Amino acid sequence: MLTDLYNAYVDTFRGADGNLPPMMELKRIHTAHVVANARLIAKGEGFDAETARACDAAALLHDTGRYEQLKRYNTFRDSDSVDHAVFSHDIVKEKGWLDGDPQREAILTAVLVHNRRDVPDELDPLTEAAVHTVRDADKLDIFRVLENQIATTDWRHDCTAFWNLPTTACPSPAVVAAIREERPVDYQDIKTLADFVLIQVGWMRSGLHYATSRRVSAERGHLAFRRNFLHELTDDPVVDELCDFQISACAGV
Ligand SMILES: [Fe+2]
What we know:
Elements: H1 2-11, H2 22-44, H3 49-61, H4 66-73, H5 84-95, H6 104-113, H7 125-152, H8 173-180, H9 193-207, H10 211-219, H11 222-233, H12 238-243, H13 248-252
Helix pairs in contact: 2-3, 2-7, 3-6, 3-7, 5-6, 6-7, 7-9, 8-9, 9-11
The chain binds fe (ii) ion (FE2).
Residues 62-63, 84, 114-115, 138 line the site of fe (ii) ion.
């Protein structure tokens, strides 16, 4: 079973005490949350069993390369090491975990493109569902991770969890413009902690593909958390402007 293969692979990174290095353990936990989110999305969207299974597998495998990335390069920053989605895709392929699996290509593609700014055009329906589900499920868990980091770090004095971005500066015009226009934000435009948080507000407005994902995000209070936190960072009225939007999923789902 795929989960057994994945778990056995993760076990190879455990130390003599049986534990994973803490940073790897965070990725293992993240993956479990992404799988759970993918299941919620598949159920909410009414996917058939085959589609739901491909989404599940893609969610499980999407960050496979994170363990080797950390071991080899001691960082999760792709720009300083490898594109972790390509790395994950290559490891899964090389291990042969999906050999003979009729959904192999859809799952591998979802792993490969899960971190890309844009989703490739003209995907077949199975691949498209796996791609969008993993991307949404991943974002939903990144919301949880940010909230944990804010709760558990002294971010005003040590902002290493947030790329050492300045904590008191206003949102950057390029980021505000992209979110207003519902365009993806270029990561090079992120100059402040407020930008970092606003990107996720942008995901809630236009980056989550499925209505179920938008509903789950709303139910978990992720937007309210960001609005409150942004008010701690800045008095800029643009915060309320960008956070005031209707979550379209709420009416219909
Ligand atoms: Fe990832």
